[in-house]
């Protein structure tokens, strides 16, 4: 069963695949962890934007969704997010973080922590330049896509920790 949502999905306890739009309201965002906890058969989740409840949601998926294997999300992927992905979803098979703000440090942590990754996509990310070290780390992954990722934004400004810490990210 695949759904592009709005809230009738609450009544689908056998839900396997879910794609969330980027225009849900804060109260809907805060409900995501509770709803995800009901979908024990959930295998795949796609989100156009990272919800504010991301860390809690990942923890709930890790505890309740034993078949979960695919995650797609866009947004600011910080140290806590990378750690949550590694700690809560170590058996992840497919991960897509394209068009996110992501640094090399977070990417390498995910690569090293999620040892069952078969597909990793980080296309068009900002704050990330894939170098030889990253390629070596990802060599065991069957499909590693990273085209278009760059350290600088379109105006030539370097990305840095202060941008990441602020929580503001515009794409």
From TrEMBL:
<protein>
    <submittedName>
        <fullName>Uncharacterized protein</fullName>
    </submittedName>
</protein>
<dbReference type="InterPro" id="IPR032675">
    <property type="entry name" value="LRR_dom_sf"/>
</dbReference>
């Amino acid at each position: 069963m695949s759904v592009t949502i709005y809230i009738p999905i609450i009544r689908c306890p056998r839900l396997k695949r879910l794609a969330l739009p980027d225009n849900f309201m804060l109260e809907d965002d805060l409900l995501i962890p509770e709803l995800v906890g009901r979908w024990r058969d959930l295998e795949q989740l796609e989100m156009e934007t990272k919800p504010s409840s991301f860390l809690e949601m990942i923890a709930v998926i890790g505890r309740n969704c034993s078949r979960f294997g695919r995650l797609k999300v866009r947004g600011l992927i910080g140290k806590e997010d990378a750690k949550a992905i590694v700690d809560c979803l170590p058996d992840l098979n497919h991960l897509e973080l394209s068009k996110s703000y992501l640094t090399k440090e977070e990417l390498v942590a995910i690569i090293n922590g999620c040892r069952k990754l078969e597909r990793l996509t980080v296309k068009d990310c900002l704050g990330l330049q894939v170098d030889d070290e990253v390629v070596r780390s990802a060599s065991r992954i069957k499909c590693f896509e990273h085209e278009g990722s760059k350290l600088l934004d379109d105006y030539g400004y370097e990305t840095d920790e202060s941008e990441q810490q602020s929580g503001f990210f515009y794409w």
